[in-house]
Structures are given as C-alpha cells and as structure tokens.
Specification:
It holds the Pfam family Peptidase_M50. It is a single chain. By secondary structure, the chain is of the alpha+beta class. The strands form 4 sheets. Strands 5-4-6-7 form a 4-stranded antiparallel β-sheet. The protein is elongated and about 75 Å long. The chain starts with a helix and ends with a helix.
Length: 334
C-alpha cells in the first residue's frame, strides 16, 4: 500500500510538473511575470524565491499551478498575461498539454531504448513452423523478401501479410553469408494473420526507439479520439473509465510488475491528460483557448467576470463528475 502511494505520488507529480512547466516556460519566453510555480495544493511545504518567482512544493500532492500576473485579474502591467497578444496567450496555454504529449513520448522512448525493439534478426523460431522447415535459423538477419528490402520488423510483417499465402523468397545474412530460402506462410487462426513462425530479436538503437515511440504515441492518440467519437455518439463503453482511485490502483498494479510498466502507464496517462485538457470544456485549457480565439475574432476580450463564471460552472461540473467516477472506482473494490 505504501509503495503504491509513493509511486502514485511520483507519477502524478511528474505529470503535473511537466504540464505546468510548459505553461511556465512559454510564459517566461513571451515576457509574462510569473508569481508562483507550485506543485501540489494547500499550504506550502517548501518554497524558494528566485528572480521574482516563488517555486513551491505544497502539502497535498494533487495538481499544481502557475500563477501569472493578470491571468485571473485585471492588470495594466506590460508584463501581465492580459496585456500580451492573443497568439502569445494561446501559446502559453497550449504549452501545458504539449508538454504532456512530449512526456508521453519520452516515457515510451525510455522503454523502447532500454528494452530494444523488434528487429530483422531472428531471435527464436516456432517449432515446426514454415521458417524452421525451410531451413532458417535463430540469428539469421532477414534482408529481403520477394525483392523488397527489409529494414524493420514492421516491413517484414507487412511483406508476409501481402503474400496471400503464396510462397515467398526470403534472403538472409548468416554470419556474413547470403542465403536464399523459399517459405510458404501459414494462416494463424489465433492472430488472424499469415505467419512464417519467426520471433524477432530485440535491437537497441536511437532511430528504432524514436520510430516506435512515435508509432506508439500515434496509436494512443488514435484510440483516445476513437473513444471520444463513440462517446459523442452514445456508443462508447464507459465501464473501464477510471478516476483518481482507479488510476492509483492501476499504478499499484504496474509498480508490482516493474518500473517499465509504471513508465508505460505514465506515458499513457500523460497523453490522455494532454488530450483531455484540450477539450473545449469550461475550466480546462481547451475552453480558455476557445475564449481567446473568440477574442481574436471580435477584436476585444470577453467580459472577465462572465468568463470566470463559465469556468466556475465548469469546475463545479467537473468536480461532480469526479465524485461520481471516484464512487464508481470505490465500488469496484467491494
């Protein structure tokens, strides 16, 4: 239980830190005065003031904030948030979710670079598979299939899938010697794909880790947007939607499996958090961007009191939703 709590605090702290660091960094870049950069809520535990900004760690490890001059109040100072251009203010707000996307990518990159990614070397063979029967061996490096150069595992899988079950010519490099084999893929009912029965070896390389991290991030984006589309249409299954309690439980499970699972979960949550923050829901970054875009079109800002009221309603509704989801999470334990 203690381990779960510590790991959860570290994960959430990292997510909040990167998000707020985005707001903070761009605010400083465009010349906005930042009064405080805080991680956590409630009374201050630790604080340090440097060049007019208080850097604070607060008691409750939930959330965080960057308090800027003129963000929530009227200010005529030249270095206030409200006096900057619409483009500059949108950049400040957009930077938070963007940093969540970067953090997610970094988490996946750390995993792929540490463990390696599936390469074109054969790591192992499935017994009595087409590849083994044709004479391929562990350690062979697949360099060509039916005249197509093979430089990634994904390319190898695609070439086998496009064979239509017909015999393919596989060229491999075995200890410096080039060998040719004729292999006929078989349809595997378990996976629903054509296979030749080879298991890739893992290769560590910066380009491969970068490529796989990008593909993993893109896949998560696709899945989240697909869920949101289904949610709007009323077709989404919300049974697996988790709130803070559910996420902490997932973090606890991941921590028992090893640090790689924790890092992977952190990457998933970070990208999810970034996308959720960009939704045009009052109180979230997305709605603030909408208000700024309207200001840009109108040529004058919306009444701050009216905007604050909209955000207050949004916060209230989000808190009620959080209570409902948390109650649902707690019921799953009984």
């Amino acid at each position: 239980m203690m381990t779960t709590a510590i790991v959860a605090i570290l994960v959430f702290g990292l997510l909040v830190f990167f998000h707020e660091l985005g707001h903070f960094g761009v605010a400083k870049l465009v010349g906005i005065r930042v009064h405080e950069f805080a991680i956590g809520m409630g009374p201050k535990l630790i604080q340090h003031k440097h060049r007019g900004t208080v850097y604070a760690l607060r008691v409750f490890p939930i959330g965080g904030f960057v308090r800027m001059e003129g963000e929530d109040e009227n200010s005529s100072a030249s270095d206030s948030f409200s006096q900057k251009t619409v483009k500059a203010r949108i950049s400040v707000i957009l930077a938070g979710p963007l940093m969540n996307f970067i953090l997610g990518f970094m988490c996946f990159f750390l995993i792929f670079f540490s463990l390696g990614v599936p390469g074109t070397h054969i790591g192992d063979m499935i017994p009595n598979s087409p590849a083994q029967e044709a004479g391929l061996q562990s350690g062979d490096k697949v360099v060509e299939i039916d005249g197509e150069e093979i430089n990634t595992w994904e390319k190898l899988v695609a070439e086998i899938a496009s064979s239509g079950g017909n015999q393919v010519e596989v060229i491999v490099n075995r200890q410096g010697e080039t060998l040719r084999f004729s292999v006929t893929p078989r349809f595997d009912e378990a996976t629903g794909r054509l296979l030749i029965g080879i298991i890739p070896g893992l290769e560590k390389s910066l380009p491969a880790a970068f490529r796989n991290s990008f593909e993993q991030s893109k896949f998560i984006f696709s899945e989240i947007f697909s869920f949101l589309r289904q949610l709007i249409r009323g077709q989404a299954d919300t049974a697996d939607v988790a709130g803070p309690v559910g996420i902490i439980s997932l973090v606890g499970q991941a921590s028992r499996s090893g640090w790689m699972d924790v890092v992977g979960l952190a990457g998933l949550i970070s990208i999810n958090l970034g996308i959720m923050n960009l939704l045009p829901i009052p109180a979230l970054d997305g709605s603030r961007i909408i208000f700024l875009l309207i200001e840009g079109l109108r040529g004058r800002p919306i009444d701050p009191e009216k905007e604050a009221m909209v955000h207050m309603i949004g916060i209230t509704l989000l808190m009620l939703l959080m209570v409902v989801i948390t109650y649902k999470d707690i019921l799953t334990f009984f």
